[in-house]
Amino acid sequence: MPYSHQGAQAVQRPGEDAWERLRLGLINLIAFALAYGSAHVRDLTTLATHHFSVPLDASVPMWPLMVWPYLCSVPLLMACFCLAPAGEPLRTFSRRMLCVTALAGLCFASFPAINTFPPPDPAAGLSSELLHLLDDVDGRGNQLPSLHVAYAVLAMTLTRFFRPGLRNVARVFLSVVAISAVMTHRHHLADAAVALLMTWIVMHVVKPDRPTPDVALHYFCFGVLAFATARNLGWLWAGVYLAASLIRVAWAYERNDAAFAHKQDGRLPWHAWLVLAPWLIGYRITWCLQRMRTRGLSPFQRWQPDLWVGRRLTENESARLPRPLSVIDLSAELSETASLRTQHYHHVPLLDLRLPSEDSLRDISAIIAEERAAGRHVYLHCSMGIARSIQVANAIAPFRTSR
């Protein structure tokens, strides 16, 4: 998807803020569905035997009325993605929530725990009836850690952006939401304690000054979620493979290692497919969807009289480029079209959604200068033609004039 690397100070176009809120909300919704949903499916067929109750739980009173703030958690989370300040506060909140959800999913899959409190009496009033309905619908598993507590604490980090009076009201309300997980006997004290500890660790590890977007973090979290989901569904070895593959991609992004797929002469080797198939297949599908989305539009643009910029082309599309031609391939994740793998093919791999280094820009500028001097047109492309190629085409002018 298109992404601007101009930094947090860049002015967003109309609609960009709403799109970012929707996108981050959907990412976290998918993560929650994988972590909690797959664990719930497992609980329908396999009764959990672990529990983390402690003697102190017996002193926790049951307050059925606390079911109402407990039920506020879902609209509360939706409100967080609507009310968080745009830019760094919103993205940091989203990253932290994704990490908390992934870690919780790993706990659900590794230590499936059951609620040992006595079931509520549905005849004791409307609040008790709601609690009984929750038991029927949501079950009594997925206990450690309590995501209600974790999400409420994360939401509390956003209250510093509120006006002083509203800030105090919001903090009190979020505290009640967190406490409701225990006071309704939906969770044990240990579930709440682990949630607090886990959230505290995540907030200290996931800092606001990370790259935007933090691609490594997202790949890592979804690798963990892939393992947890597969384990919950009984596909342990598939989960191990998916997690290892996605975490390998995360490590490459963390190190900014664009050559980690070992693409040579425009082709991805078999061992790259063996290790990175989920990532590579995902990019291939995305490329096909991008072609469908832009059907009827030119897959490349004329940037300068002898410089063309776009996406990876099909054989038929490549025939429309002017000749003689030199190709600069920026993609690390797709093999080059066969007709473009010529003696004038150059591969300068860049990772998607990452700023290119000055060394890469100098290398690309030097190649363009050499090919121009030889009288050839230059086709500069990435996978989708909407991030890396456009970014590099805009950035190489200072390097070209400095030569």
TrEMBL record:
<keyword id="KW-0812">Transmembrane</keyword>
<keyword id="KW-0472">Membrane</keyword>
<feature type="transmembrane region" description="Helical">
    <location>
        <begin position="219"/>
        <end position="250"/>
    </location>
</feature>
<feature type="transmembrane region" description="Helical">
    <location>
        <begin position="270"/>
        <end position="289"/>
    </location>
</feature>
<keyword id="KW-1133">Transmembrane helix</keyword>
<feature type="transmembrane region" description="Helical">
    <location>
        <begin position="21"/>
        <end position="39"/>
    </location>
</feature>
<feature type="transmembrane region" description="Helical">
    <location>
        <begin position="67"/>
        <end position="86"/>
    </location>
</feature>
<protein>
    <submittedName>
        <fullName>Phosphatase PAP2 family protein</fullName>
    </submittedName>
</protein>
<dbReference type="InterPro" id="IPR029021">
    <property type="entry name" value="Prot-tyrosine_phosphatase-like"/>
</dbReference>
